[in-house]
Amino acid sequence: MADPKDQEDHDASTDNVDDSNHDPHFEPIVSLPEQEVKTLEEDEEELFKMRAKLYRFASENDPPEWKERGTGDVKLLKHKEKGTIRLLMRRDRTLKICANHHIIPMMELKPNAGSDRAWVWNTLADFADECPKPELLAIRFLNAENAQKFKVKFDECKEEVRKCQEGTGNTDSANKVAEKLEELSVKDKTSEEKKEEEKKEIQQGEGYSVDAL
């Protein structure tokens, strides 16, 4: 007669084998189709891309200071049909936009506090926060060589936009749009007062180095 203990051991080992081979399969209750996410970059040609750190000049603070906006790839993108060029920068990981504005001929990159790897410029309509507003921005690269490459391409884009505007008979169209946005946001100030304020802000920003941040 079989030993009851041996029978129990055999049953236990059989159970273990069945558990190890068990592979349940469950059908999903709801099937979710893949959705293509549009970034609006699909209609643009990438002219330039390089890693950098971006800042905005917080003139409203006392004292005024540069505030970091994020680190990521700064891009210069040309629309395939319209011919417009914009500067776009997204933060690493989150991909949240920290700079988004059109390149226009009147823009000028200036050295930041004498630094050879950082540039300062002014835009009348930055769309990083969806609502357009004027910003004084600064961008810092890893080294002087990268900073110079950015400036060369930035200036090339300005010239290309200028020629495109002349070719379509809309030389000042982008400038006029920016100026109109400016008027809507500062109705209580005259044009001369605003220009003087922007000039003062740029001079302040140039004097505050982002290299120390």
Automatic annotation (TrEMBL):
GO molecular function: GTPase activator activity
Sequence segments annotated as region (Disordered): 1-32, 164-213
Keyword check for Repeat: no
Gene3D superfamilies named in the record: Pleckstrin-homology domain (PH domain)/Phosphotyrosine-binding domain (PTB) (2.30.29.30)
A single BP term in Gene Ontology: positive regulation of mitotic centrosome separation
InterPro entries, alphabetized: PH-like_dom_sf, Ran_bind_dom, RanBP1-like, RanBP1_RanBD
PROSITE patterns linked: RANBD1
Skewed-composition ranges (Basic and acidic residues): 1-26, 177-203
Leader sequence segment: none
Coiled coil: none
Keyword entries, A-Z: Acetylation, GTPase activation, Phosphoprotein
GO CC entries: centrosome; cytoplasm; nuclear pore
Key word Acetylation present: yes
Domain RanBD1 span(s) in chain numbering: 25-163
Task of the protein: Plays a role in RAN-dependent nucleocytoplasmic transport. Alleviates the TNPO1-dependent inhibition of RAN GTPase activity and mediates the dissociation of RAN from proteins involved in transport into the nucleus. Induces a conformation change in the complex formed by XPO1 and RAN that triggers the release of the nuclear export signal of cargo proteins. Promotes the disassembly of the complex formed by RAN and importin beta. Promotes dissociation of RAN from a complex with KPNA2 and CSE1L. Required for normal mitotic spindle assembly and normal progress through mitosis via its effect on RAN.
Family membership: Belongs to the RANBP1 family.
Quaternary structure note: Interacts with RAN (via C-terminus of GTP-bound form) but not with GDP-bound RAN. Identified in a complex composed of RAN, RANGAP1 and RANBP1. Identified in a complex that contains TNPO1, RAN and RANBP1. Identified in a complex that contains CSE1L, KPNA2, RAN and RANBP1. Identified in a complex with nucleotide-free RAN and RCC1.
Stated name of the protein: Ran-specific GTPase-activating protein
Organism whose genome encodes this protein: Myripristis murdjan (pinecone soldierfish)
